[in-house]
Amino acid sequence: MSRSVLVDLELIGLRAPVRRSRPVAPGPFALLSLLVALLPIEQPAVWMGSVVACNLLPWLLGLRAHRTGVWRLSAAGLERLAPDGSVEEAYERDRIEEFTVTADDEVLTIFHKFGSTAAGTLTEMGFDPLTFYMTARRLGITTHVIDGDRSVFDEGDLPSEEDAPRALGRRAEQRLRDQEATLLAVAHEPYPAAQTAPATLDTAVAGRRRSVALGILLALLAFTMLVRSAFDGGLGLGDRVMGGLWAVVGAVAVLGARRRRLTGAPLSWAITPTELRVRHATVAEWRVRADHVAAVVVGPGTAVDPVTGRLTGRHTVATVFGHRLQVLARLPAEGLDVFQLTHALSERGYQIVTPEQGVRRPSQYGLAGLPDIFARVPGGRLVVDEDGIGWADGAGDVILRMPRERIGGMELLTVDGHAWLRMYDDDGDEFLAAPLSMLRISRTDLRESARRMRLPITDAEYDAYVNAAFHGSMTRIESALEPSPALTEPETKTLPPVQLDVPRRTRVLAYAVTATLCELVAVLGSVWLRGDLGGFWTALSWAAPTGLVLGLAGTWLYDRNRPQLRISASGISSVTRLGRTEWSVTRQALGGVGIDESEAPRLVVWSPVGRVLRRVSFPPDLAELRRACERHGLPWGPPDAGHAAAPPPEL
After folding, report:
1. Residue 270 pLDDT
2. Following DSSP, what letter does each residue of 414-426 receive, concatenated?
C-alpha cells in the first residue's frame, strides 16, 4: 500500500449533534418546583413565577450546550479533536505498539513501551468495532479483539507465575476477520442490479402527532390550573399543593410529548441503483452515490440517540464502504425490517455483508467437520461422563474432551433415515455434525446419558413420539369412559384449544385490595386537607366515593384486557381477552411447562435445553393447566425431569 493512501486513510468518529431544545436535568427541577410551591410566598405573581421558573430553567440551561469534540484515527495516530479542529488529546502512531478491544464492553486499551492505558469505550468515542478494527490494521497497527471485558487486563486477575499462561479467546476477532475477508472479496466485484425501480422503506409511527398534541394540551391545561390556583382566592395549603402537582404534571406532559416526537420521528430510505438517500427527521439527511459504494455492512453499530443526543451502541446501522474500504457513511436503520432492507439493497446492485451471513449450510451434512483424531484412534467411540463429552479409545481412555461448560447445546435428528448428532459451543456456533454410527453410540444411550449428566440435549423426534403415544393413550381412555351416544359422533383429529384465566378468587381479591388502597389514600388525604376543605367529614364524604369508583374502575380497565393462557396442540401462548397475542411458543421450541420455585413460585415455559423462555406473572389454576397440557401433549415440568416409566423404543 502506497504512502499516499495511508496518509489519506482516516476514520472519523460519530459526533452527537447539538439540539437547542434539549433540557438539562428536567426531572429534579420538576420536583424542585413542587417544593417551591409549598414555600410560604404570599404574593401570587411571585409564587407562580417561581414555580414556572423552576420548570423553564432546564430548557434555558440547554441553550448553553456546546458542540462536542470528535475522535480521529489516522496515520498520525489516535486523536481527540476539539470543535475548532485543534488536538485536545493524542496518542502518536510511533508510540503505539498495539490496540486491544474487549468484546463485551468494547473498551479500547492502548499498549506502549511503558505499559498500557484505557482510552475509553468505542461507543463513547463514536467508533464501531468493525470499522475501527479494519482501519487500524490498514494503518499497520496491531489490533486484537479479546473475548470478555476489561477485567482480563487487571493485575489482580492475572494468574500466578507458577500457573500455566492463560489463553485469551478471540472468537469475536475471528468474526471481524470473516467480515473483513468478505469485504475484500466483494470490494471490486461487479454486482449488477436485478431491479431498477426505486424502493422506499420508512418507520412512520402511528399516533405520533396525536400523542404530541395531547401532551401539549395537557401542558396548557396544567398552566391554566396553575394560574387559577395563584389568582383565584388566597394561597392556602390546598392551593399550593394542587398548583405544585399541576406544575409537575405539565412538566411531565412536555417531556413526554418531546420524547414521543423524537422516538417516533420517521426514518425513510430511498434506494435506487444510482443513489442512496436516507433521511431521519430529527438527526440528519444522507445522500450517497452508488458508483462510490463497494459494499454495505448491515448489523449492530453505534448511532446517535435522538432523545438524549448521546452515542449508544447495539443499534441497527448500515455502514457504507468505498472501493478503497474507507467509510463513506454510517446510515441509521433502527426500526426497519432488516430482511426487507438487505434484500432491497441487494436487488438494486449493492453488495451486502451481514454478521450472520457466514457460509451457507448445505441441506445434507457431510463428514468434513469431524476431527482427524476420530479416524486416528482405533476403536474410538463417543462417551458421556460428568466432565462433558469425550472421544475414548478402545481401552476406554479419553483422548479428546469437550468440557461441559463449553457445550452450548446438542441436538439429535434424523438425516436420510440415519440418526445424527449436531453440537454447538457456548457461543451458539455449530462445531460438529456427524452420524451416530460414526461416533459408535446409540441414540438412546447418548440421550439418556446426557440427560442423566444434566447436559443440554434435544431430541425433538423422540419427545414428539412420547407425547403422541401419551395423547393416544389418554384419548382411548376418555373414549372408553364416554357414554355410548358419544361414540356415534364423528371423531375429531385435533382437540380444541383451552383458554385458562386466573381463578375467580384471585380476581375478587385484586378488586378488593385495589379498592382498599384507594380508600386508604382517600382517608389520609381527608386528614391532611381537612382544614382547607371544610373539615374531615366533609372531605371524606366526597373523597371516599371518589376513591372507591377510581379503584374499581381502574381494576376493571385492567381486568377487561387481562392476558390469558391458550393451550393447544401447536403450543402455548398468552392472549388478551380482546384477542391480541402477547407471545407464543410453538410445540417445536417447547421443552416443558411447570412451576419454578427457585426464587418465588412462578409459572415458567422452558426450552428443550432447559432455558427459561417465558415467565408468566399471572397464576392460572394449576390443576386445569396440567390437565390441559396432558390432553394436548405438551410436556409438564422441566425438560430434564426424570420419570420412573421406561421410555418408548428408540426411533
Report:
1. 92
2. EETTEEEEEEEET
**pTM of model > 0.70:** no
State residue 130 phi and psi, 5-degree precision: -70, -50
Q: How many CB atoms within 10 Å of residue 111? A: 16
**Whole-number Å distance between alpha carbons of 327 and 320:** 6
Output phi, psi for 608, to 5 deg: -60, -25
Q: Name all contacts of 20-25 with Cβ < 8 Å and 24+ positions apart.
A: 20/62, 20/63, 20/65, 21/59, 21/62, 21/258, 22/62, 22/65, 22/308, 22/309, 23/58, 23/59, 23/61, 23/62, 23/255, 24/58, 24/61, 24/62, 24/65, 25/58, 25/61
C-alpha cell at 365: 451434512
CA–CA separation, 13 and 1 (whole Å): 24
Please give the Cα distance from 99 to 518 (Å, whole number): 60
Amino acid at 567: I
Tell me the C-alpha distance between 92 and 95, whole Å. Answer: 5
Check residue 491 and give its pLDDT: 44
25 — alpha (psi -120 to 50), left (phi > 0) or beta?
Answer: left
Q: Phi and psi of 496, rounded to 5°?
A: -70, 150
Residue type, 321: F
| Inter-residue contact 439 to 412 (CB < 8 Å) | no
Amino acid (one-letter) located at 394: G
